[in-house]
DNA sequence: CTGAAAGCGCTTACAG
DNA sequence: CTGAAAGCGCTTACAG
């Protein structure tokens, strides 16, 4: 395999000059440069990137830790990160934790071992103190998930108020028996959306019955099972707010399998506005998060941290939007217009 | 930041011994080892992995090039790869091409630049000669997609026969006016499934009308639009075989929006058996691919290539399975049993 | 079982 | 504008 030294010899220059042609061409005379480039092309020389990484102590890799790579939500966020990374010459290393906190911790070691220049966490379930310490030493950004009172750059929406908005929508339709299928309750996002739910209920003096709160695990199947439980109650709810669209999808399936009509017998609100929420029949009322933009912004902030640029704002809170669709709209338009790009 | 040399001094040994404690502990005496480990823990020393990569000329990174990270199909394949990689101490670097052939080519450079020890391509749309050459120099595996007559290890199903099977299912239901929504026709998979479709039609002496073949681009939206075109024909088809479930989902939505009942007026078959195909109403008849196993096997083969182990079989062809569901089953079970894990 | 020394392939501060 | 030289932090063949 051709090395820089070999190229240098062929071009009758020093390795330093070859390096400059590749990394700082403006420092080399036009003549030398084209001579060297010709040799590079001729022998198809590719610099040994690991050697460069080692020499410069920069990898141009960043790590993104995702709780679930198969989720439609996170893959959109990833896209945003990816685009900004690529445009700035960074590779994305993907760490999929599959919602396992130990694996989340393991990935952090990649930072300590200098395998990556920075890290974006889309899941923040580990020790707060450790993360805070880490972020004083390394470029680190949280996105989507966050930790209360943590002094680390964070990009997200306001989950409490979004959940409140979703619940208020159900209340405004006249529902009083409203249930919530939460996410895993050890995750802050789940607690925040649950809090928003309770706030909306309480401010209308509506009872929050404990059997109306069922803990899911973000997945379709748990949405299905928890909805089945809710429907089996002596007094089943007439409306349900699910932590995310995937569980809302499961809840709707459970209703159908139980002969319960959505939205007439049961109104359902989801969260995230994944593509399936508009495709499903009925389409699902949901909270739209700017997934791509969250990813984009998180990467932009990470770049600033890596380049030691000043951060004007440590917490970025994006706006979300309630999108009302068939799962809460009693007058169903059979020919609902297809929502597509 | 603590270096190996610092640890060595603190433990009163040479750096070589510290290195051995970390990489080959069996070569070090029990006493020395525990002394060194104590220091390592005390100062929380983490080896500089890039230095190690540089020294050993092995990165323990592998690259997976995916055509679309947001696809439910590919993320399952990724999981299989990931699990085997992790178990063997490899990190996965993700290259998302977004179906762009130039980006596919760019990712290949990571191999030439020695940033990764090997590569799994889930998309193979670039120059055959180049790939073949590459695979003689570097560990390289194709999975899902492949190239005809290419002498590179490949893991996939037999797409021609699967497509034939899917089409024969429609024929066996009495359909004669059968359409096909293909994938992008510059991709071999699309051509293979189209070929299987034609084979099934011709062997039954059924006409393959050119207007019955519509080229999509793998996405929901194109399934929708192409189905709309098919339904607008003077003699619309009574059945359609879509390249994948995502487009089948789009086709079904188009039928619904046009007041065409699935499966009574239009039977639909998809491909891949993504989760949504069982959730959708009607659930979708499809070809199940062993997604996770394909990923797993591809990574196992890559490991063999990396370790210079012998390969018994360059082409692995997995079995697929036709799963008959509501989109082709006229007697609809309202209480269809939910298929879940 | 342990240490001294070489070297992986680049980049860059320094000198000219 | 260009070159000689140092050095990034490890691992391993060699010697003892």
Mean pLDDT across the residues of chain A is 93
CATH superfamily of the largest domain in chain A: Response regulator
Rounded to the nearest angstrom, the radius of gyration of chain A is 25 Å
The largest sheet of chain A has its strands arranged as 2-1-3-4-5-11
Question: What is the oligomer described by this structure?
Answer: homodimer
Q: Characterize the largest beta sheet of chain A: strand count, sense, and whether it forms a barrel.
A: 6 strands, parallel
Class per helix and strand makeup of chain A: alpha/beta
What is the 3D shape of chain A?
elongated
**Based on the structure given, which CATH architecture of the largest domain in chain A is correct?**
3-Layer(aba) Sandwich
CATH topology of the largest domain in chain A: Rossmann fold
Major interchain interface with per-chain residue totals: A-B, 46 and 45 residues
Estimate percent helicity of chain A.
40-55%
- Total domain count of chain A: 3
Q: Please write the string of helix (H) and strand (E) elements of chain A.
A: HHHHEHEHEHEEHEHEHEHEHEHEE
Distance between the termini of chain A: 47 Å
Beta-strand content bin of chain A: 5-15%
Question: Can you tell me the residue ranges of chain A where pLDDT is under 50 for at least 5 consecutive residues?
Answer: 332-341
């Amino acid at each position: 395999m051709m090395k820089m030294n070999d190229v240098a010899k062929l071009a009758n220059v020093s390795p330093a000059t070859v390096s400059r042609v590749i990394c700082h061409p403006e420092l080399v005379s036009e003549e030398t440069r084209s001579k060297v480039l010709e040799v590079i092309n001729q022998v198809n020389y590719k610099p040994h990137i690991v050697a460069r990484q080692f020499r410069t102590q920069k990898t141009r890799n960043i790590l993104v830790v995702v709780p679930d790579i198969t989720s439609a939500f996170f893959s959109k966020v990833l896209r945003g990160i990816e685009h900004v990374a690529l445009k700035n010459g960074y590779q994305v290393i993907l760490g999929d934790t599959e919602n396992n906190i130990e694996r989340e911790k393991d990935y952090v070691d990649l930072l300590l071992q200098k395998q990556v220049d920075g890290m974006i966490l889309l899941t923040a379930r580990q020790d707060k103190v450790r993360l805070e310490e880490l972020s004083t030493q390394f470029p680190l950004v949280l996105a989507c998930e966050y930790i209360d009172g943590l002094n680390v750059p964070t990009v997200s929406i306001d989950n409490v108020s979004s959940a409140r908005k979703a619940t208020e929508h159900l209340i405004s339709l006249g529902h009083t028996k409203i249930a919530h299928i939460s996410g895993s309750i050890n995750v802050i996002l789940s607690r925040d959306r649950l809090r928003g739910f309770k706030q909306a209920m309480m401010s209308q003096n509506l009872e929050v019955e404990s059997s109306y709160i069922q803990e899911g695990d973000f997945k379709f199947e748990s949405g299905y099972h928890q909805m089945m439980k809710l429907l089996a109650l002596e007094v089943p709810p007439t409306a349900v707010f699910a932590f995310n669209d995937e569980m809302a999808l499961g809840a709707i399936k459970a209703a159908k399998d139980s002969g319960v009509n959505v939205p007439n017998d049961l109104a359902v609100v989801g969260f995230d506005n994944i593509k399936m929420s508009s495709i499903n029949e009925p389409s699902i009322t949901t909270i739209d998060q700017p997934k791509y933009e969250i990813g984009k912004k998180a990467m932009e902030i990470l770049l600033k941290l890596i380049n030691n640029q000043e951060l004007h704002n440590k917490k970025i809170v994006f706006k979300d939007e309630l999108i009302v669709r068939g799962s809460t709209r009693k007058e169903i338009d059979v020919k609902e217009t297809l929502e597509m790009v």
